Amino acid sequence: MEKEESDSLIEKAKLCLRSGRRDKALQLLYEAQKLYPNTRARALIDAITRNGSAAGEGSSIPEYQGRRKPGNEDEPVHGTGGDAQSYTEEQVQGVHRIKKCKDYYEILGVTNDASDEDLKKAYRKLALKFHPDKNCAPGATDAFKAIGNSYAVLSNPEKRRRYDQFGDEQQMENTAHTAHHHNFYREFEADVTPEELFNIFFGGRFPTGNIHVYTNRGATFSHYYQPRRRRMNERREEEAEENRSQNTFTAFLQLLPVLVLIFISVITQLMASNPPYSLFYKPALGLVVSRETQNLGVPYYVDKGFEKEYQGASLRELESTIETDYIDYLQTSCWKDKQQKTDLANLGRLYRDERLKQKADSMKLENCEKLNRLIGRQRGE
């Protein structure tokens, strides 16, 4: 039952990735991992954590479904019949290059000592170039999968180490010749599919640029924005800026009464006299003289003229208040310490991190110990 619920959460997270909601997807994956730990959810979490920053480098634009305008013959079209898919000779040559590659580094066009940033740049460029929605050359889908699988393996430190150590070039070459409708290079499989990786990088859509994607009976090709479209976009941005300015002024008017109340409260506090005591050393307020309550021995600090103002019944009443405040402070601090220790232990179990487990086990609850001693002293134990 827990496994099924976990799988359902993972599927919902994948839908969120396709719509560009990475934070929501990450939240669902954490819930799935907590409910039923599995490598699938963990791999997606790691991929989003490592590559999530790349998604913010370009916003998304909606796809446009329509007909290709007549007379737009900038790109050569291959294929026959009304349902032919359009692609360029350059795209065909690009697919052939990917098929001839013998290792993951060659696929991405990087050296064996490439950094994570180099891998990201290479993947972004190739993924946009070979995505099936933009490249309809024969074998482009397999090339796109090979690019995604290459990056997913090389961006994972453990998989990259194993690949550098055990990757067999000859086996991979043989696999490349036989992988027509399957992923290239199955010797080292990634935990994240190429489509999921693309969604993590780009939020499920193509980043904003000067290229628009059109679809005609299953065929896709690129078309440059016209000046009229740019003017329309600029006009929309100007209108949106005006609306934001109006909304900001309206929000300020709504918050004005609250700001006035805050100002009055601050002035009142500045005019109020300093408190007669503090549980902590506060030289700025003149509370530097250390004392202890007569009943429970609770430490507190007062100013130099304290003994002249508080004696007898007034002192006993004040120290009773001090002891109550100190107990409340210890209770709150004890709860926070326990919560922190529990969180560390849960994280250690979730990520199988022995260092976090040891840190949680060795963490001392000092405020809880002080609270227990104080309560025991209050009961006369």
TrEMBL record:
Instruction: Establish whether keyword Cell membrane is in the entry.
Output: no
Q: Region annotation Disordered: residue ranges?
A: 52-86
Q: Which UniProt keywords apply?
A: Chaperone, Endoplasmic reticulum, Membrane, Transmembrane, Transmembrane helix
Fetch the Pfam families from UniProt: DnaJ, DUF1977
* Membrane-related topology note: Single-pass membrane protein
Q: Where in the cell is it found?
A: Endoplasmic reticulum membrane
Look up and give the organism this protein is from. Answer: Huso huso
Q: Protein name, please?
A: DnaJ-like protein subfamily C member 18 isoform X1
Q: Which segments of the protein form a coiled coil according to its record?
A: none
Residue ranges of the J domain? 103-167
User: Chief subcellular site?
Assistant: endoplasmic reticulum
Where on the tree of life does the source sit, at the highest rank? Answer: Eukaryota
